[in-house]
Input
Amino acid sequence: MKGNLFQMIRERQWLCGVIAGVAFLAIGVVTGQLTVIWKKAVMICLECIGIG
Output
């Protein structure tokens, strides 16, 4: 039983990573970080192209 539990956990580690990633993205959106990151990304793109 013990070996099967650890094997099952190892096989599903990617799922824990996906759940953690989605949770952190949701936290970022709720705290308003999405707009901050979007503005920085747009400014970097505009500077790189040479428009801004």
Summary: Residues 25 and 31 are 10 Å apart (CA to CA).
